[in-house]
Specification:
about 290 residues, seven-stranded antiparallel sheet, 1 helix, 20 strands, about 5% helix, about 35% strand
Length: about 290
């Protein structure tokens, strides 16, 4: 399956989602959309994210090959230009995080998206959630990882709605390996189910596992599309979708998709820095 985008068009003609076997999908994009909920969850623009609480000491390496099959389905974003949630987590070693936060550290196991309808966690090989730290009352989250540890991004849908999840690691789209963008296609998260993203997608059949590593070994540090300034950040964007094949899509008002503009460069880590992607993630090109 290839992910098709039409970046030159002013309205969505087609975009693709991955519905991996357990996870992924291709969707025919809407010419029309449903009005957004009157009180949507506040969306924090990635480029305007607050400064990190602790400097990241880790990156994510292109790990070993794992089987992870995907299939195609058709779906339509209800609000193509307005995600229901955009969130990010920085990650570093636990000692550095606790030293930075001192006695103001608040510890949790997941982050709530879309008013709690979706739970997002980072889990290790034993399926245990990694600790997520923040200052008390803050949404500036930091995940504690360990060099050499494999991890997964896990999303649990507590609602009866369908969502599309666009995920980035170190500023790169986990499907294409290109700079992350909310205009990219993503993975389908079904009502009441759990989606696990365990690596950069190499093909319809396989992924390269996420592996915490030294920053100079990170996938993003060894790819032309990568930016070392974004190493150490994980991003998630959530869109509610209706499934065309289940006839859950209703008539919606016309929606024009703005032409994509490259965001201004910043020294702050950015989980969604890029242009629409290619197909799947290419292997790394180690520079040293």
């Amino acid at each position: 399956m290839s992910i098709k985008t039409n970046s030159a068009a002013t309205s969505w003609r087609q975009w693709c989602l991955l519905v991996a076997v357990g996870l992924t999908a291709c969707s025919q994009a809407p010419m029309q959309m449903e009005a957004q909920e009157p009180h949507p969850e506040p969306v924090a623009a990635a480029e305007a994210a607050p400064a990190a609480e602790a400097r990241s000491t880790l990156g994510t390496q292109w790990g070993e090959e794992r089987e992870s099959k995907v299939t195609s389905v058709t779906a339509t974003r209800l609000t193509p230009n307005s995600p229901q949630a955009v969130a990010q987590m920085r990650y570093s070693d636990e000692t550095s995080i606790r030293r930075a936060l001192k006695n103001k550290a608040s510890k949790q196991r997941n982050v709530l998206l879309a008013h709690g309808k979706v739970e997002w966690s980072v889990r290790n090989e034993q399926d245990k959630p990694l600790p997520i730290y923040s200052r008390q009352g803050s949404r500036n989250y930091m995940v504690a990882g360990r060099d050499g540890e494999r991890y997964e991004l896990v999303y649990t849908n507590r609602s009866n709605r369908y969502y599309e999840v666009i995920a980035t690691v170190d500023g790169l789209d986990v499907i294409s390996g290109q700079p992350g963008s909310i205009h990219n296609g993503g993975y389908i998260l079904k009502p009441g189910e759990t989606l696990r993203i365990d690596g950069f997608r190499k093909s319809q059949q396989e992924v390269a596992a996420f592996l915490f590593s030294a920053k100079d070994l990170a996938y993003a540090s060894n790819m032309p599309a990568g930016d070392e300034r974004n190493v150490g950040v994980i991003g998630s964007a959530l869109f509610e979708v209706c499934m065309d094949e289940l006839h859950t899509c209703s008539t919606r008002s016309h929606d024009q998709r703005p032409k994509h503009q490259r965001p201004k460069r910043s020294n702050k880590p950015n989980p969604f820095p890029g242009d629409p992607p290619g197909t799947y993630a290419p292997p790394p090109q180690y520079r040293r």
